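Quick one:
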Amino acid sequence: MICWIVKSRWLLLVILLSSLPASLSPKTVIAQTAPFLLSPYYREKAINQYFPNHGGIDFQIYYEQVLASANGTVDQVQWYNDNCHQHNTNSSCGYGLHTIVRHDNGYRTIYAHLSTAAFSIGTTGIALNSGQVLGTSGNTGWSTGPHLHFEVRNPSDQPTDPFNPNLWKDGQWASPSRPIPEPVNGGEILVDDSTTSSGGFSKGGGGGFQNPCTGDCQGWTSAAIGINDHMYHTLADGGSIISQWAKWSPPGIQTGGAIYEVFVHVPNDNATTWQAPYVISHANGTSAGVVDQYGLNNQWVSIGAYQMNPGHYVWTHDASGEVYNQHCSATYCKLGVDAVKFVRRGTIYLPDIRCNNDGWSSQLVLRNNGGGYARTVVRFLRSDGSIACTSQPTLFAHQSIALSCGDSQVASAVVDSSQDLSAVVLQEHTNPYTLDAYAGVITARQDIHIPIVQKNNSGWCSDLYVYNPNPQNATATFDFTPAPGKGTPYTYAYAIAAGGQLRLNTGPLWQLGNLFVGSVRVSSSLPLAVASTQYKGTTQLMELSSTQPLAARLYGPLIQNNNSGWQSGVTLRTPGGGLSMYASFQTSYNGGVCAPVSPLWDNPQIVYPAPPSSNWCNPTPNAIFSSSSGMVASVNQLQGTLNATTYEAIAAPAPSASIPKVQRDAYWLDGFVIMNGNGTAVNLTVRLYNSNGTLNSTPVNNQSLGAYQSLTVLGQIPYGFNGSALVTASLPVAVVANAYRPGAGSGDVIGSYPAIHR
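Output:
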């Protein structure tokens, strides 16, 4: 059972402290840029400076999540003074709602003026990890505005400088001020108190959900405020006997344990209790805590992220246990109930997962890109949507893990997480050894264009893997468009079960003709996730996932022109279908412009033209493709008849890109290529993180990357490293990664995929 306390906008896991003999003074937070980073892991909010008579540091964060700064144990959770809870000019109110964490080195950290706490008052002895959510910043106690007071106390219980470099070291301390990112994607279920707009709400009088009733009944009174201009309220009871209860049961929760963040709406009137109890029923049991409604004004309050299945719910009741010597001294406090919403958190789709399927097996690598720990549910699914394997790993900030499923019928996988994750799937064949990789699909779409599909083309064929993430059956329509003279157009529709996968093999499709080289559009009334392959028996595999939207400008960070036998061919598809090359140009790795290339590319095996002169591009140029309309493109990498890989050209470069897998040892020589597609230089920072999430001690040289230049990160990676990488830049950049096995099988084996850009 997990307990928490919430006072304001977001739920957090807060650890509280006992009364501290600190010299306190009221704080109005003034924004000021920090002179240096508290930790290498985070970019900080504005803070004000450390004052000797203040005892800590103030972070200017407005009702945002607070994180544990290091591994430790909950020492205490409490109000500094039970006679004052909200902001107050009385110095006796002190830290307000606060948390203390005790660390192994004897130090304690204090998180004060919180609006929410994830553990009950008086909680102690619970182990915590660095980056774990503690609560929400706020304005409780002796405070003049919402902020976080962060304090470090030495083993002698004396305040010490929070910026002490001996404390804030790589891999030891993290910033307490980094908010957890918003949900990456996925669905919202609103359950309102009005039975006319939602059937998932019920209320009544008595314990155990007894005596349900509708309207103003059983001690409940309605008011014309809140979501949909309606709420209910009742008198909060200072005792422990439940007289009134309210319950929200979300419809449409999918079987399989997706992660949902739960938000409670607090109206601006008739909600005055500072200790409204809430209980969440979820896959791992129940979590309970309180919400301080008194200081809220028409706000949504997060009470945490939970793995939920059909039948789980949220409820509250009037047995608040309040002490009536505070703001409720003359009257009873009111418990207000309004809407509750369930927001599905970050989801990644892996349409093609294998376990000894014709000798092929899959390895799924996940990376936590967020600032706090990630509660994650991984479901490996069979083609009919049934669950083959499940895993519930917890990943700390920047941690990466590898997972697999031993079920021979596994076909796809879905990852739900409370944090922003990135994922890559490695497809490996052991005999002969062959490798490829594809990136996890973040956004399912209704209209997907795949630039290259083959059938019997010099031994090459294609498979399409389509995953239906919806709770309803879906129908996918495939529109095949051949290149001129390379097959027959064909349209067909296939049904896909809810949560199921379809594998469409082009070989049996006689309607395409004996030879087909072209592209395909996959459309559906419901969003789908798609991966596609090009394969030549078991000796070569090229796989890409449809992660990139249509765009008029695409980036290819890695192009090869007879680079140790590797050649690149590019295929493009526009919404009108077919393979075509519009106005485009190539740039070299050092920013120079190569000879423009603008032929009609009607064969995916066509490589870049042979150098017409000595000034043609070097063996590893990059490329920018532009068109008058949106397009998608694949960049095929071929080493004769030995090896092959492909990746989708990048439509949306970003100032941050994560690479889930980076490994260098006797078997692996992974690397990645960073492309600056801007007309001006960018400043790059490259960080390597060990698999446990700590920053690797070997620095990667940061540098300025000139206009249209590329940087290959390979030799800078230390031998024995196994983890992930994060690239940040002053302007958007495009990054492609290589999972690389030198000398494996018939030669160098590479699996290429675009990094996850944010």
